[in-house]
TrEMBL record:
Binds 1 Fe(2+) ion per subunit. This is tRNA N6-adenosine threonylcarbamoyltransferase. It is an enzyme of class 2 (transferase). It comes from Phocaeicola plebeius. Its EC number is 2.3.1.234.
């Protein structure tokens, strides 16, 4: 008998549902919330309301595209955390209600574990190149920057992580002060392609071990920009491609320096990248260069699986389902936690 999992993701500002059958993706639907653009960041209250509006049509569409009836589902996997509490509650409550009404098991998924396991999503016609355990995963998103040793789908060890801001958060905030818009990641990425990465120098942190820090870079960027704008109020307009390229290069260098250290010390050359910032072209190129130079076997997700999506939740749920790792109805959503 086939195993069919419906995945539901609502941890931040994307409402998403996906259907996976025996590990193969049948459908993935994402409703992004444009409502936040005017505010330069996600407004939690608005996000939860939009999830409420989106969840039913998104789930309906995912099932329809997969050609699967609700009654065919084996289980429902949902993001239990970490994320915005109000947003999570919509997906968690919906998943619980649907699973209860269909009398099928629920599987809770850690959002960060989902990002890492996005590398295991199989597409019907796609070639399926998956990392072999153990591998190292650089997880970089709007809320997290971590280096993880992945021993098995359910055995992940955080070797290093940010002690303050996440890489994506730093990019978004710098973009915001430049008046470029939200989310800053894709905007900076596009501008950086046309700029000179050596034009400006920003400070890099000196943090021991494998941990990261991005708040110093953010602050030095803000102060430098303030000084430059005193001289030239249109400084950003005149230099935005060079600013974007130099900022991106600094962040990519910071990320790769620690990752190189981990790969050298562990001897694990199977190296993956995951999370929203892994859509960044500068970071993707740095991975390719490292593969060539240091013989790394790299895994870069398809663009659609970098940012939040339910396919990664469904594939994680699929593995947990096979292990009968079910969740009881009394488990609440949680807003903060890293990978255990
Ligand atoms: O994984 P994600 O969708 O959400 C979290 O779980 O946090 O990541 C969102 C982050 C945002 O900071 C966004 O600016 C960044 O990923 N991002 C990018 C790019 N696309 C999205 N950063 C750099 N370059 C990109 N192309």
């Amino acid at each position: 008998m086939s195993t069919i999992i419906l995945g539901i993701e609502s941890s931040c500002d994307d409402t998403s549902a996906a259907v996976i059958k025996d590990g193969v993706l049948l459908s993935s639907v994402i409703a992004s919330q444009a409502v936040h653009e005017a505010y330069g960041g996600v407004v939690p209250e608005l996000a939860s309301r939009a999830h409420q509006q989106n969840i039913v049509p998104v789930v309906h569409e995912a099932l329809k595209r997969a050609g699967v009836a609700k009654e065919d589902l084996s289980a429902i996997a949902f993001t239990r955390g970490p994320g915005l509490m109000g947003s999570l509650l919509v997906g968690v409550s919906f998943a619980k209600g649907l699973a209860r009404s269909l009398d099928i098991p629920m599987v809770e998924v850690n959002h960060l574990q989902g990002h890492v396991l996005a590398h295991f999503i199989q597409e019907p016609d796609g070639e399926n190149v998956q990392p072999k355990y153990p591998f190292i995963c650089l997880l970089v998103s709007g809320g997290n920057s971590q280096i993880i040793r992945v021993n098995a789908y359910n055995d992940m060890e955080v070797l290093g992580q940010t002690i303050d801001d996440a890489a994506g958060e730093a990019i978004d905030k710098c973009s915001k002060v430049m008046g470029l818009g939200y989310p800053g990641g894709p905007i900076i990425d596009k501008l950086a392609r046309q700029g000179n990465p050596e034009a400006f120098k920003f400070s890099k942190p000196h943090i021991p071990g494998y941990d990261y820090s991005f708040s110093g870079l953010k602050t030095s960027f803000l102060y430098s920009l303030r000084d430059w704008m005193k001289e030239d109020p249109d400084f950003v307009e005149h230099h935005k491609t060079d600013l974007a390229a130099s900022l991106e290069k600094t962040i990519v260098d910071i990320l790769m320096d620690k990752l190189r250290k981990v790969v050298k010390d562990t001897g694990i050359k199977e190296v993956a990248v995951a999370g929203g910032v892994s859509a960044n072209n500068g970071l993707r190129n740095a991975f390719r260069e490292h593969a060539k130079k240091y013989g790394w076997n790299i895994f870069i997700p398809k663009f659609g699986y970098t940012t939040d999506n339910a396919a990664m939740i469904a594939i994680t749920g699929y593995y947990k389902f096979l292990d009968k790792d079910f969740c009881t109805i009394d488990k609440p959503a949680y807003s903060r936690v890293t990978i255990k």
